Amino acid sequence: MSAQGSAEGVVVAIDGPSGSGKSSTARGVASARGLRYLDTGAMYRAMTWWMQHHRIDIGDAAAVAEAAGRPDITMGTDPAAPTVRVDGTDVAREIRTQQVTAQVSAVSAVPAVRERLVAMQREIIAQARRSGGIVVEGRDITTVVAPDAPVKLYLTASAEARAHRRSGELSGSDVAAIQADLARRDLLDSSREDSPLTRTADALELETTGLGLDEVIALVVELTDRAAAAAGEAERSAAS
Q1: What gap in Å lies between CA 234 and CA 237, rounded to an integer?
Q2: What average pLDDT does this structure show over 63-85?
Q3: Distance of alpha carbon 209 from its chain centroid, rounded?
């Protein structure tokens, strides 16, 4: 069986805080095994960008909830070139601004926003599972979006490592300021009432501080292959 074929139908769910390496790891694993890729955080960023673009008061949770059903958010799941479109416009760059980063946790905490986007995420996962499999990353994938995923991971790293990684993505950024902002987002994401960031008992925690990206990807690929092999064996046993 080919490497790609061995992962057919598998769902890899990856949670963790900002800067833990979720996105790079998820894309690397998806590319290595011919799977689709979904960055659910980008969906919340897209929703936040739309709210800002339409001058919705993000401090007013009721206003955000009322508007949550209006934007048309479309995600491309090719790990080599994932796309994010809102109302037909490519916003992949716009959603990565500091302005969006500063308010995405507040928007994400609104239950109506989470309800809509979680439903979209589950539909994307279901479609991808029927056509091969998918790696999904975010903050509530193992707990809410795909709790039955055969591979459930929680990636983490030291605060310093996460800040340095993020500063590398944001040229000229101050590491101390980034670390403070990550701490603020961690608190908001882990303390919100609806789907807080947390590690489930059955999710394997991977501490990535001292590991290179290739090492982390290799570990997750191995776990993915094992899960796919186990699923295949179960299917053969059921059919016999």
Answers
A1: 5
A2: 97
A3: 19
- The pairs formed by 46-49 with CB atoms below 8 angstroms and a separation of 24 or more are 46/71, 46/73, 46/84, 46/86, 46/91, 46/95, 47/71, 47/73, 47/107, 47/113, 47/117, 48/95, 48/100, 48/103, 48/104, 48/107, 48/108, 49/86, 49/91, 49/94, 49/95, 49/100
Give the side-chain half-sphere CA count within 13 A for 95. 23
139-170 burial code (b ≥16 CB/10 A, e <16): bbbbbbbbeebbbbbbbbbebebbbebbbeee
Distance CA 135, CA 96 (A): 21
Burial class of residue 68 in the structure, from the number of CB atoms within 10 Å of its CB (0-12 exposed, 13-18 middle, 19+ buried):
buried
pTM of the full structure:
0.85
Q: What integer pLDDT is reported at residue 8 of this predicted model?
A: 55
CA distance 115 to 106: 15
Label residue 183 by pLDDT band (50, 70, 90): confident
Confidence class for position 6, pLDDT limits 50, 70, 90:
very low
Fold of 5-233: Rossmann fold (3.40.50)
Beta strand pairing call for 73-76 and 83-86: antiparallel
